[in-house]
Amino acid sequence: MSKQNLRAGLVGLGAMGRNHARVLAxxxxxxxxxxMDPAGDATGAARGAQVVATLPELLALGLxxxxxxxxxxxxxxxxxxxxxAGVCALIEKPLAHTxxxxxxxxxxxxRAGLVxxxxxxxxxxxxxxxxxxxxxxxxxxxxxxxxxxxxxPFPQRxxxxxxxxxxxxxxxxxTSWMAGCPYASVSARAVSKSGRRHEDMVAVVGELADGTMVxxxxxxxxPLKERFTAVxxxxxxxxxxxxxxxxxxxxxxxxxxxxxxxxxxxxAAEGDMVRFAIPKREPLLVEHERFRDAxxxxxxDIVTLVQGLRTVEVAEVVLDSARRKTSLPLQSPHARNLxxxxxxx
Amino acid sequence: MSKQNLRAGLVGLGAMGRNHARVLAxxxxxxxxxxMDPAGDATGAARGAQVVATLPELLALGLxxxxxxxxxxxxxxxxxxxxxAGVCALIEKPLAHTxxxxxxxxxxxxRAGLVxxxxxxxxxxxxxxxxxxxxxxxxxxxxxxxxxxxxxPFPQRxxxxxxxxxxxxxxxxxTSWMAGCPYASVSARAVSKSGRRHEDMVAVVGELADGTMVxxxxxxxxPLKERFTAVxxxxxxxxxxxxxxxxxxxxxxxxxxxxxxxxxxxxAAEGDMVRFAIPKREPLLVEHERFRDAxxxxxxDIVTLVQGLRTVEVAEVVLDSARRKTSLPLQSPHARNLxxxxxxx
Amino acid sequence: MSKQNLRAGLVGLGAMGRNHARVLAxxxxxxxxxxMDPAGDATGAARGAQVVATLPELLALGLxxxxxxxxxxxxxxxxxxxxxAGVCALIEKPLAHTxxxxxxxxxxxxRAGLVxxxxxxxxxxxxxxxxxxxxxxxxxxxxxxxxxxxxxPFPQRxxxxxxxxxxxxxxxxxTSWMAGCPYASVSARAVSKSGRRHEDMVAVVGELADGTMVxxxxxxxxPLKERFTAVxxxxxxxxxxxxxxxxxxxxxxxxxxxxxxxxxxxxAAEGDMVRFAIPKREPLLVEHERFRDAxxxxxxDIVTLVQGLRTVEVAEVVLDSARRKTSLPLQSPHARNLxxxxxxx
Amino acid sequence: MSKQNLRAGLVGLGAMGRNHARVLAxxxxxxxxxxMDPAGDATGAARGAQVVATLPELLALGLxxxxxxxxxxxxxxxxxxxxxAGVCALIEKPLAHTxxxxxxxxxxxxRAGLVxxxxxxxxxxxxxxxxxxxxxxxxxxxxxxxxxxxxxPFPQRxxxxxxxxxxxxxxxxxTSWMAGCPYASVSARAVSKSGRRHEDMVAVVGELADGTMVxxxxxxxxPLKERFTAVxxxxxxxxxxxxxxxxxxxxxxxxxxxxxxxxxxxxAAEGDMVRFAIPKREPLLVEHERFRDAxxxxxxDIVTLVQGLRTVEVAEVVLDSARRKTSLPLQSPHARNLxxxxxxx
Lengths: 345, 345, 345, 345
Fold this sequence. Notes:
The structure is a homotetramer.
Chain A: E1 6-11, H1 15-25, E2 30-36, E3 50-52, H2 55-60, E4 65-68, H3 75-84, E5 88-92, H4 99-112, E6 116-119, H5 126-136, E7 143-153, H6 163-179, E8 183-191, E9 201-208, E10 213-219, E11 221-233, E12 236-241, E13 246-251, E14 255-256, H7 260-266, E15 269-270, E16 273-275, H8 283-295, H9 305-324, E17 327-329, H10 333-344
Parallel strand pairs in A: 1-2, 1-4, 2-3, 4-5, 5-6, 7-10
Antiparallel strand pairs in A: 7-11, 8-9, 8-17, 9-10, 11-12, 12-13, 13-16, 14-15
C-alpha cells in the first residue's frame, strides 16, 4: 500500500498492554511507534517500538492514536492528556474508575472532535458477535432473560478497583449491547472476603428497559473459571462461552420424552441443540481493526465513550445497591443524554 | 417382625402420588391400606391398596399416617382433616399455597400433638446430604455464597401455584437447611411469559442472617433441565447436581498455571477437583423411612411443619419483592418463634 | 378391542426378566399369563401373572409366545422346548452360548415355521434408530469407521459367558445392522483379570465387507460406564450415546479457526455440531411392540434368529482371534446363507 | 551467570519450527544464533537470530546444538550433517521417515559420541508426566489396558508421511514410556480416504511384552479433536487429556448405587473421581530445558535416539499389519539391543 501507516502508541505494558503490543505490532496499516511504561520493557514486549517512561515523551513521537492500558485509576489523566494533544484514543475498560471521571473523558474527546473508544473486548468475541446477529434476526423470538457468569481465581495483578468495576463492567456492557436496551433497575449483594479493599464477589438481578430480566454472578473467589452468557426466550436458549468462543442454541422441546427413566434427567421434552460453526477470529485483533478503521474515517462499529460511560454509571449503581442492600433504578439514559446535549450546546 | 405394621394412606395419585405409592407399597414396617383420588386409579398405581374417592372414606380405613400429595391448594383442607382425625401426616412441598394456610397447619398438628412433616425431598438427595455433612465438618471453611439453578421445560401437569411456590421452595428450603441459617433479605425479578396465570421465571439475590450471599435462578421456560447447587467459600467450591446425585469439590488453586495457553482457559491456578463416591439411595425412600421412624417415635430427622412454613413465608416475600421490584427483609424467625411460643402457651 | 389378546409367557425373573415382566404386563394386545422361574417371585415382579417353577408348567398355561430371559447357557434348551410346543419366542441376546446351539435354534424355529426373534435391544435405542435412518438417507456420505465403547463396573449378576458373548454381541449386532454390512475380518486382544473364568476385557479391530473400519472396546473392569457409538465418514462424525439416547452430529469444518489460542484446543476448523431432538421411547417397549406385531403377522422389523446366529458366530471368531492373537476372516455370510438355503429346500 | 551460553541453531521455520524459535529465544543459558529455512523468515519468527538458507551456512555460525524441525523425510540428511559436524541435535518426531534412516541416525550420533534426542513432546505434557509418576508409585496396581485416541481435522500442512508415522508415533512412544515396556504384537486396520497418498486413519490393537492390552485410534478425518490416554488397571482408570493437561483418576466403586434410576446411567457402583492439581508448565519448554541440561552434561531425562528408533520400528510394523490385515509380532528389543551393543564394541 502506498498509503501512509497510522502512527500508534501504547500506554502501559502490563498483562493486557503486552497483548495490545503484540496485536499493534502486526496490524495492517498501523505502525507501533512507541510504548510508555514507567517500569520499562523487561521482556521485549514492545517488539522493536521505542520504549519511554512518560506520556510527554510518547506524545513527542507524533501519534495518530494511542491505546490506553495503564491501571484504571490512571485512565482519566492519560485520556485527558491525549485529547489535549489531539490524539485519538482506544481506552481499556472500564473507561474510568468513576462515572465522574468517565464523563470528563467523554466531554474532552467530544470537544476535541477526536475518535475515541473503549476496549470492551467481550463484544468482539465471535460467540457474542454471532449471538447478537441471531437475536437481531429474530431467531429467539421474544427475549425473556439474560444470565451471565464471570468467575475464576484471582489473577495476580494489581486490582485498583473492585470486581464490579473490573469484571462486571464486561457483563453490563455486553448485556445492553446484545439486547440493544439499557438497564432500568438493579438489586445487588456483594462481599469482600479476601482481605482486599474492594468487593470481590457480587450477585445482581435487574431488568432492562424493555422488561428483560437480568442476572449476573461475578467474582474473583471461585476456583472454577467461567465466562458464560445465556439468553432465554420464546424459542429456547442461547448459550455463549467466551473462553472457547462457542455459541450453542437449545431449541424448545419438539418431542415429549416418553421414556420415563430419561425424562427425569433431561426434562419433559427436548428440542435440537446446535453448536454453531462460527468463524473464530481473535477478539483483540477485531477490536483493533475496527478502531483503526474508525480513526481512518471508515464506517466502523466501535464501543463509544458514551457507551463506556453508561456502563460505569450502571456499575456505580450496582455498587450502591450492594452497599445499601436495596433495589435502585437507573436514571433514564435518554434524560441524561438530553441533559448532556443541552449542556454541550 | 412380630411388630404391627403402621397403616398408611395416600391422598392423591398424580405424578408424585404414584411415586409415593410405589415407595409406600414396599416400605418395611408399613402397610399401604388405602389411596384416595377422585379420579380413581386407571394405571394400577395403588398396587393392591384400596382406592377411594373421598377423604372420609380414606380415614374410615383406620390410618396411623397419611401422605398428602394432592394439588397444593388442597393441602390445607386435607391436612386439617387429618389432624382433626388424629392422623399423622407427611405433606408434599410446598406445605401450603399461602403462609397463612401453612400457619394453620402448623397450629393444627401442634395442638393435636401429632407427628407431621413436609416432603422437601431435595434435602434427602445423596449429594445434598453429603454436602451438608461436609459443610458441618468445616471442609469449606467460611461460607461465602450459595447459588442454585432449577430450570427446565414445563412439566405437563396442573400448576395451581407459580414457579416460586412450586419450584423455588426447593431452593429456599435446601439453602437454609444446608447453611443452617435463615434468610435475612431478598431481591427478586419475575416474569410470566407462557400465558399462565402465575410467574414462570424468577431470579433472586439475597443474604442469609450470617451474611452469606444467595442467588437463585428458577424457571419453567428453559429447554435445559438443571438442578444445580454451588457453595463457594474459603477453601473452594462445592457443586451438587441433584439429578445425578453428584457432589464435586473444586479446591482453590494449589499450583499457578504457568503454561499461558492453558491459563487463559482454566484460570490462573488450579486445585484438585474431586467427585465424591457417595452411597446413592433413592431420596424418596429415605424421606419415607425417616418419616416412618418419626411416627414410630424413634429419633428422626424430618422436615418439620415450622420449617415448611418458614419456606412458604420466604417464598411470599420473594413474590412480593418481584412484584414491587424492591429488596425486602425477612422478619426474624427468632422473633416470630418467640411470638409463636408465647401464643401457644 | 374385541380382538383376543395374545397369551404371553416369560422364562426367567432375573434383572432383565423383571424388566420384561413390567413391559409385558402393560403391553397393548397382550396378556402376561405366566412366569417361570425356579426361584419363584420374591418381589412381586410377575405383576399378577401366575408364577411356575418349570417350563412344562408354563407351557401348560397355553401360550402364543414366550420371552426367554434365563441364563444364556439355558437359551437352547428353553428355545427348543418352545419350538417343539409350537410357541413363538423372543429370546434374549446372545441367542445362545455357542454358535452351534444358536444354529440348532435357527433350525428348530425354521422347521416349525414359528416367528422367533432375538432381544438385541440396542437396535431399538432411539439414538441408534435415528442414526441408522440418517445413514440410509446418505447424511454422512461414505462411511469410513465405526467405533464402539461399552464398559463399566461389573454388574453383580451371574456371568455364564464372558464379556465378548455377553456384551460385545451388542456391538457386533448394532454395527452390522447399522452399516447394513457383515464383518469381513477381526483382530482381538482379551484378558481375564478379575478371577472370573471368562475374559472380562476385549479390544477388537476389524473391517466390514464394504471396507469400513471397525473398533470395539468392551469390558467389565472400568469404573466409567459408557455406551458409545461413533460413525465417522465423508461429511463428519455421528456420535450416539445409548445411555441417554442422544445422537449428535459433528460436521466437518466449515470455517478455519484463525484464533490461534483456540485452534490448539479445538482443531484447525470447526463445523456445526447438532444434537438432534428425537422421540425417545423406551427401547424395551419398542422391541416388544415389534415382536407382538410380528406374532400377529403384521409387517415387522424384528431381529431374526439368523441375524442372532451371525452375531454369535462373529463373537466366536473374536474369541478365537483373541486366544490365538491373530487376525481372522469371517466366513462369508452369503456363502453360508446359500448353503442354508440349499439345505432347507 | 558468568557461564558461557550454549549456541543453538534451528533447522526449519514451519509451524513447529516457529514454536521452537519462540522457546529457544528465551531459554536460560542458551543463545539462538541462527535459523535455517530455504523459504526465509517472512513473519519475524526468528526473533533476531540470523536467518540462512542452507545447512552449511547454519553450521558456519558455530553451534553447540541444533533443533531439527524440517519435514520428516529430511531428518536423516540434516541429522547426519550435524553429527558429521560434531553438533548435538534435538530431532523432531518421528526420528526419521523409515526405520532404516532412523538406525543410521542412531549409529551416526553414537559413533560421534554426541548428545542427541527426539522431540516426542507428549512425554513432557504435565498430564502424562504425572500419570507416569503415579503408575510408578503403584497407584493403579496391576495395569490392564492402555487406550489412546488422537484425532482431529487435518492440519493444513505438508504431510510427507501418513498418519501412522506422523501422529501414531506419539501414541507408540508415550505408551511404551509410560508402561515402561516394549510392544510385543500389533494388529491394525488403516484406510486412506481423503485423496492423500498415505493412510489417514488407523485403528490398532496390540499387547506389550508384559501382557498389557493396547488400543490406539488415530486419524486426520474427524471433526472432533481429541488427545486422550486412558490406563485401566486393578484400582480404577486414569484418564489424561493432553490438550488441557488434565489428569483424572476414576477409582473403582466404593459404594453400590442402590438408586435404580441412577445405576442405569452411571453403573452398578461408583468410586471417587479426582482431577489432580498438577503444575502445568509448557511441554515444549520442559523438553528444551531437559535437552539443554543434557548437552551441558547434567543429569537428564531426554528421549534417546534408540527410543525414537524403536518407535519408528513399531510404526512400520503397524503399517505392515494394516496392509496385510494380519497380526504381527515385534522383534524383541532386547535381542536388537544386544546386537547393537555387540556392534558398538
